[in-house]
Hints:
Elements: E1 9-14, E2 20-27, E3 30-35, E4 40-45, E5 50-56, E6 62-70, H1 80-85, E7 91-97, E8 102-106, E9 111-115, E10 121-126, E11 130-137, E12 143-149, H2 154-157, E13 164-169, E14 174-175
Antiparallel strand pairs: 1-2, 3-4, 4-5, 5-6, 7-8, 7-14, 8-9, 9-10, 11-12, 12-13
Amino acid sequence: MSGAGLKPAVLLRVDPDGTVTRVAEDMWFPNGSVITEDGTLLVDETFGNRVTAFDIAEDGTLASRRTWAKFGELPSDSELGKMLAQVVIAPDGCCLDADGAMWIADGLGGRVIRVRHGGEVIDEIQTGTGVFACMLGGADGRTLFICAAPDFQEEARKNAREASLMTARVDTPRAGLP
């Protein structure tokens, strides 16, 4: 938000004793993440047009980095406006359902999408406003909670109180962690 060009970031792991370890490089704005039942970490890369997967070892290290879903090419420019123009889907907050699909807040598209491994969008809920996080919950795990706000610009949101929490009923319940 300072106006500097955006650069790839690192992914850090914080252990219970407070130790911080760098576990991945070259992440394009790592954001929402989930852990699947089989111990795979899925990380949304908001400006990278993708969801990246890692196997989690017993000691917490990450291995076998791969693309779980690809929505477009990596950005070719670091200036925010030009980069945003290259983002097809801006995966932000997310959650996992019992079919192994992810519900993903599209930070630029005003929607949440349900995505299968590989990147196929199989469901979509338009909100008419910016969407930045989602989570399945409720008594039966079939309520999709959607965190929304008009935009993510720090200066515009600093003094505004326009965020909202929306809900939608879905067919498939939650799974994974969180």
